[in-house]
Every structure is written in C-alpha cells, then in structure tokens.
Amino acid sequence: MIVTTIDKLTKYAEIPYAQDIVDFLSEFRKTEMAPGRYDIHGDDLFAAVSRYDTEPNVDRKFENHKKYIDLQIVLDGKEEIHWADTKTLTQVSEEFSKGGDIAFYTGEAMGYTLLGGEQCVILFEEDAHMPNVLHEKSENVLKVVFKIRCSE
To answer: Does the predicted TM-score (pTM) go above 0.70?
Structure first.
C-alpha cells in the first residue's frame, strides 16, 4: 500500500498511467462529472466515480483484487480506509474463481488512513482494504477509484 498525494503520484514507477490519472483528475474538477465509469485506456485504466454516505466499520468487510491495482481518492468529504495484509485475515467469499476480481475478508485492521483532499491510496493484491468507513461522523463523499490493470 502506498499513501501519497496526487502531486507526487508521477514519482512512483510502480504506478502505470500516473500522468493520465493526474490529467483525468484535473479535467474532472473542471467539469464535475456524474457518478459512473469513465474509460481512460479501456479496461487497462478506468475511473469509477461514486457518491455515497460513509458507514461504521462494523458494517463493512475487507476486500482485495488480483486483476487491478486500486488508486482511491476522496474529492469531497472524508472517509477512513482500513488496511490489512490478506495473510492476516479470513476469506469469507471470492469471485476470482468465477472470473470476477474481488474477494471479501473478515479480521482486524493493521491500520487506516484518512482520505480527503489531495491524499490518495494505492492498493495492490496483498492489500486488503475496507473503504467507505466513517471518520467521526457519517459524511456524503465523492470518490474516484482508478482501476489499473496489473501486468500479467
């Protein structure tokens, strides 16, 4: 897991399409795009824009992905994103065997970071994450999740 700010994103060689992500966010802020999927490089890089209310962590599960790296940023509001290594959790369901790209887990967080403003988090396959968690109180957030296809 990498926690950084958007202005430093292009410094990470591990993040393909970093400049395209920065450019998308710059354009997004000018036009206030509606929630939905935005293809940037087809299935290799796309943005999922959503708006929702954050929830208590007891109502959430950890998840991870194998086909895509997640880069998550909250542009309006704040949310906690909890993290744990998948090796420390108990898997309760998965879609990998059916061609999907998600598994769910229960267990204890190893830590969390607060998303809001320019801070973003980059999550790899081993990084189970619990997004959408309230920080102090429930908030309505505007979030962009960039899905970056992993090289196989």
So the answer is: yes
